[in-house]
Each structure stands twice: as C-alpha cells, then as structure tokens.
Write a structure and sequence with these properties.
- 2 copies of one chain form a homodimer.
- Chain A is an alpha/beta fold.
- The first copy, chain A, has 6 helices and 5 strands, in the order βαβαβαβαβαα.
- In chain A, strand 4, helix 4 and strand 5 form a beta-alpha-beta unit.
- In chain A, helix 1 packs across helix 5 and helix 5 crosses helix 6.
- At the A-B interface, strand 3, helix 3 and helix 4 of A face strand 3, helix 3 and helix 4 of B.
- Strand 3 of chain A pairs antiparallel with strand 3 of chain B.
Chain lengths: 220, 220
C-alpha cells in the first residue's frame, strides 16, 4: 500500500549550478528539503564548500557523506588523468563510473529512513549526451529497481526536473528562483576564479551568454 | 556491442558465512576474484576483520570501502536499537535501508573500472523473507538499471548463486568447497564466541544442524 506523498525531499547537491537550481525549485514547490552532499575524493574540496554555502543560504538541513573510494578511473578522482580542455563526443574523461547510481542509492536509503516522498537530482540534457547515468531511461529503470528494493511503504519519487532543459534554460529558471549563482562552482579545477578552459566552464559560459545574463563569478 | 564475458569478478564479502561460500564458489568457477569489503559503521568491526581473514585465506586481492553514514535507521548501525532475540515475521530491525542497492552500486563502479564480467553477492532465500533488496525481483530490476546506467561496453552479470538455497544447503556447499567456516562470523554481536541469541545465530545453528555438520565456532 502506497500512502500519500510526503512533502519532505532529499536533494542531491554538488556545489554546481544545476543542483543549486533544483534545490531552490524543490523549495518553491513546497518541499522541506534535506540536502545530501558527497565528499568522495573530488579533485578539489571547493565543490563541497560551495555546496555547504548554498545549503546554508537556503536555510535547509544537510548531511555530508564521506566516501573513501579505493579505486580511481575518472579524471575527477584521479589527479594523473588530465581534465580535457575541449568538448569531445562520447563519454568524457570526467565520467565517474556509476556515480549517480551510488549517489541515488544513498539518497534512497536516507529517504527511506526519514520517510521522504521525493529525491531531487540536477541531471539535465547536456549531461546525458555523455553520462549514461543521466539519461531518462536510466532514471526510469532506477525507479523500478527502487520500488522492489526498499521496504518503505510510502512512495519515493525520483525527480530530475532539469532533464529536458539546456544550460541557458536552467540559468533562466535559476534567475527567476533567486538562485545565488555567486555561491556555485562549475569549474573542474579549484581556484579563485574558474579556469575558463574545462568543458564545464565552456557550458556555463555558453549558458549565461544564451540566457542573456552575466555570470557573477566572471569579472568583466 | 557486448563483448565476451570477462573472467574477472567483483565479490561482495561481509565476513559472514554466505558470502564466504560465494567467494569459494566463484573461484571454483574459474573467476579471478577481487573482493570488496565495506566498513560502514557496523555494530562491530569483527565482521570486517573476518572478511579480511577469509580473503587472505583465499589468496584474492581486496579493497575495503569506508563509508561514514550520517544517518542511522537500523539495529546494525545504531547502538540504541536492540538486536532482536527472536525471529519475527516481516522486515527485521537489522534491515539497513537500501544496503544492497548501495553495495551493488559500488561493485558496479569497480566492475566497470577493472572490466569485471561479474559481481557475486551472497543473498539467499532466507534473507529475502525479510530484506526486500535480497529478492529475485530486486536483482532482476537492478540488472536492468545497470544496463542503462553504465558506460561499460562489456557485459557485467550480477550473480547471486545462493538465492534459491537455504542455510543448510549453503553450509553443505561450503563444506564441499572447503570454506574456512572457522574464519566466518555470523553473530550480530562481537565477542569471543557467538551470542547464540540473535536471529543470525539461530539461522546458523539451524543450518549446521540440518546439514549434519558441526560449527567450528561452537565449543562442544
């Protein structure tokens, strides 16, 4: 028996722009958000620090989940692999095998414990050109798996509200919602300002340009 | 394109009896096993220590993955929840929400990195009376999700070879395979000898009795 949907939500927050928009959107939709941040050996801790700042600005509660990965296999985990400077077709070097599967699994566990009715994730169209675990068919299959894999009697939705939006649309939505873009960090490198070279910087710059907005992180 | 099946396998090992049997079985089937052990804040570290001993006895390589759970919700993680003394119907207090989902997600990630063709897990019939993520329909759904969630071009099978066996059959199989039962630990409590009271002890004792064997952990 599935009871009525709880208005508590687990929100996966990376410190980047997309998940910050999702957090504000979930709040705007009336969800009481519990933010889940992963400290999983990313190249830089700036991402985690930004996620905490964004959460604090939102007034939501949060948990940081620390994972010590005993293997590498991605430019985001392994300092020896170079961050690609150009946008290339196919799976990027920054792909972390099964990352969303792992992150969503923890979100499921927490959602079951706190009886949350939804899990929010910031995956979007541009992601799934390269990352298999950002594709709509993946989320569909994950939901089916979760339905039979949990003891929870309440329904837990997996919501990826940006899935069909491009970066410019996400930034436009973020602007409407009052997302603190100045607290977000998209660059694959740490630093006082974004490198402007990695594909994440490329996408962010293109998005702001197309949305007709100025990125507060870029001095003019 | 799915290429031929790799004979490297990721084996999830808990330190208990079931996964020890699975490890020996995978080796007997010709797999080169890479053992994955989780240190996730279990009630006692004895489980992890036993898993390491079993792996060393097998001669396989292993990795310990440490996870700092920032929430509780199970008698296995929370010292405040009592370990049940009786076997009760339904989901037991020792259920850890989404545990197998999380563990298998990490196994998927590692399997993709090392191009393993299989993941072995020791789930079995008695488990799935209470734990939803031990049921055959869960594994079926997990496999479907993994197929669309990974970038891996090679096939990764999820194998739960004990799924239709009871404890006595598992112990019988372990005996044939030469499993070092003396190194395994099933009790939910730590100690010099098993408590003999928790449901895990009950099942183990019943299994040895039905298999007509003597548990090397129990002094007579």
């Amino acid at each position: 028996m599935k009871s009525k949907i709880s208005k508590t939500a687990v929100v996966l927050l990376s410190g980047g722009l997309d998940s910050a928009v999702v957090l504000c959107l979930a709040q705007a939709q009336g969800y009481q958000c519990q933010v889940l941040i992963f400290d999983y050996g990313q190249r830089h801790k700036q991402e985690v620090a930004c996620a905490v700042k964004i959460t604090k600005a939102s007034g939501c509660a949060y948990r940081i989940l620390k994972i010590n990965f005993p293997w590498k296999g991605s430019a985001l985990l392994d300092q020896k692999i170079k961050i690609p400077k150009k946008i290339t077709p196919g799976v990027p070097a920054t792909y972390v095998p099964a990352r969303n599967i792992m992150f969503l699994s923890f979100a499921l566990s927490w959602a079951e414990v706190i009886k949350a009715g939804a899990i929010f994730i910031g995956a979007h169209a541009q992601d799934y050109s390269g990352y298999p675990d950002c594709r709509p068919e993946f989320f569909k299959a994950f939901v089916k798996m979760a339905k039979v894999g949990l003891a929870a009697k309440h329904r837990i939705q997996i919501l990826a509200p940006l899935l069909n939006k491009n970066k410019a649309q996400i930034i436009g939505l973020g602007r409407e919602l009052g997302v603190p873009f100045n607290l977000t960090w998209s660059c694959y490198r740490a630093g006082k300002k974004p490198c402007g070279e990695c594909d994440s910087c490329h996408y962010r710059a293109k998005g702001f340009k197309e949305a007709g907005l100025i990125d507060p992180l870029i001095k003019r």
